[in-house]
Amino acid sequence: MRHEEAGAADAVVLGVPGMTRNDAAVRVDHPYHRGTNQSGMRDYNERLVLSLVRIHGGLSKIEISRMTGLSAQTVSVIMRELEAEGLLLRGEPVRGRIGQPSVPMSLNPDGAFFLGLKVGRRSSELVLLDFLGKLRSMRHNAYAYPTPSGTIDFVLEGIERISESLTPEQNARIAGLGIAIPFELWNWADASGAPREVMDRWRDTDIAAEITARCPFPVYLQNDATSACGAELVFGTSGAHRDFLYFYIGAFVGGGIVLNRGLYGGATGNAGALGSMPVPAPGGGVRQLIDIASITVLEATLAGQGLETGKLWSSPEEWGEIGKPLDKWIDEASSALAHAILSASAVVDFEAAIIEGWMPLSVRKRLVETTSGRLARLDSEGLKPPIVKEGTVGIHARALGGASLPLSDRFLIGSGAAMKNI
């Protein structure tokens, strides 16, 4: 179904085949479609239990009681309710030497589903994740540059196709859609080669509102690099670090900040705008990190030498042989990244700096190793530089990060004392 076809009050609401807008009003009472306010969606203790089970993979009520300080009776009530809702699964009893056998509880993969959208310079991705964070479905849309109408059409059609592959019960458990998109997308006109009048349409487009009007579940919006950072926090293994700095290197480099194991967005949601950090430029002077460490810089170098650039966007798993232009880009990008990491460390005592990107694993590895070496050679007197590590989510981190938004907002606990030592 095309986006422009839905104008009447009884138009089909995407996400559940056959459901109309009038029917959608009934869906508000479903536990996965209540208000998005955190305190209104789930009790704090329920979120805490789900967060702990997610982290540890499976826990008994005795283990949760010990970790949280909640009484065994309180934990039992919570876990029974979560099991009744289909969010937890009961495992096989584990018999010990004394007392009743403990029964581990784990997340039900079909307990909830989450949609994530990434809007990029050359392509968009729509993903569906289950409650464990496993990818269930992915749709891809390539283009010369993103347009509001084309993006909305892709999302609505994609949701409809995905919903057709799910059972009615699974459709009812879609808890939301998270959109990972660069802020002020209209400023991409020059860099993307798109007509300015086309990109200017993004100024007047509220993509979240457009999609919300057609979906029976909440829609969330966040900067794309910050969303990728959220994916690393929720689905990756870097969550062992309480505070870390995160760089996602795509067409343009961006980033995110994790403080006390929680994603920090700041007052406007733009905290961790690392691409704007001033760093020493190759050959002297100062430039922004985005002008040195972005993949568009490598693209421009290749294009200037008459070399193929398409694989940078169409084949992130394997770029093929690039040679000296890649060596030069890694050398300059790693130097800029090292300076950015050191500067950020003067503000927050980060434990780690995570580097992820739309690039082959071999390139990411080289970039991380070179950055680490450059950081070690900088004057860091008075500071303790963080360790530099590779990301653990991969090239689709932005789309997965979009899907993590409804998961985190509706079922998990963010930063706070309760999670400090867990």
User: Mean pLDDT, rounded to whole units?
Assistant: 85
What is the count of DSSP helices, taking H or I runs of 4+ residues? 17
Q: Which ranges are low-confidence, i.e. pLDDT below 50, for 5 or more consecutive residues?
A: 1-41, 415-422
Strand order of the largest sheet: 5-4-3-6-7
- The structural class is alpha/beta
- Biggest β-sheet: count, sense, barrel? 5 strands, mixed
What would CATH call the homologous superfamily of the largest domain? ATPase, nucleotide binding domain
Number of strands: 14
Name of the CATH architecture of the largest domain: 2-Layer Sandwich
Radius of gyration: 23 Å
Helix content: 25-40%
- What form results from the Cα inertia axes? globular
> Which range does the strand content fall in?
15-25%
The end-to-end distance, rounded to whole angstroms, is: 46 Å
Q: How many structurally independent domains?
A: 3
CATH class of the largest domain: Alpha Beta
In CATH, the topology of the largest domain is named Nucleotidyltransferase, domain 5
Descriptive report:
With 422 residues, the chain is of the alpha/beta class. It folds into three domains: 3-32 and 112-227 and 401-418, Nucleotidyltransferase, domain 5, CATH 3.30.420; 38-109, Arc Repressor Mutant, subunit A (Orthogonal Bundle), CATH 1.10.10; 237-392, ATPase, nucleotide binding domain (Nucleotidyltransferase, domain 5, 2-Layer Sandwich), CATH 3.30.420. The chain has 17 helices and 14 strands. The strands form four sheets. It has a five-stranded mixed sheet with strand order 5-4-3-6-7, sandwiched between helices. The chain has a five-stranded mixed sheet with strand order 10-9-8-13-14, with helices on both faces. Strand 4 and strand 5 form a beta hairpin. The radius of gyration is 23 Å and the shape is globular. Mean pLDDT is 85; it is low at 1-41 and 415-422.
